[in-house]
Amino acid sequence: MSSVLFDVPGPRAVRRYRVIGGLWILVLIVATALAVWKLHTENQFTARQWEPFVTPRLMITLLQGLGWTILAAVLAIIPAVIFGLFFGVGKLSDHFVVRWPSWLVVEFFRAVPLLMLIIFIWSLRGFRQGDLAALVFGLILYNGSVLAEIFRAGINAVPKGQAEAAYAIGMRKTQVMTIVQLPQAIKIMLPSIVSQCIVALKDTSLGFYVLAPGLTYAGRELWRTFNNYLAVAIVLGLIYIILNLMLSILANYLQRRYSSSGAGQVQLVAGQVQADSAGASSARP
Predict the structure, then answer these.
(1) CA distance 187 to 192
(2) pTM for the whole thing?
(3) What CATH topology corresponds to 55-259?
């Protein structure tokens, strides 16, 4: 059988692909061996480089940095979701004085590089060196603008017939948005919203540039003391990977929980709006 994109390779092509694959594996093994040998010659595997991560006092420093990172992420994500919902709905408004300011705010903060935004906020009067507020406000403005586009796209993805049916029974636009469109759009937007929350968590590492408390700041103190840049980078990278994996597991759970068949659907039955819960039977006529 043949694929839509290409024909099934014959015996000669299969042998050729196997040879090419084997050569690439050999190249990767050699490159890895050279990298390990180079790190060994630079004394990157000595006990002195990794001792800070088994020293209780220094481990407490890293745990405190982890706590500040999680706090910054929470303080940024929750307002960013509210910010995104407000301006995402505002971009869909029929009123010019609401739609265009919302469009300008979203497009401006979505276009400005996040690091420049954080440094600019930090440079304003009232923000001190190491202040967490500059990092949090920058994350709110940037991620909120991205979430606004996610909300707008999710609402537009709801079938138009749903809104038209709601208008036909005399509902106002605010009612259509809050009762009919948003409940269905949440099911569509949920994976993208959680993905953006993961991005916000990773972006907390940018607080290093304004010396905001967090994992990267704690790591800075470690490598300035022990000169173990590689070890600190590996450990901090593993911590961020674990945090992101935990959020990914949460995203998968929420998607299975709320994106299942019939969950969160809104139906217009006998001139009334009825919301079906997960697993509920269909509305009676």
Answers:
(1) 10
(2) 0.75
(3) MetI-like fold (1.10.3720)
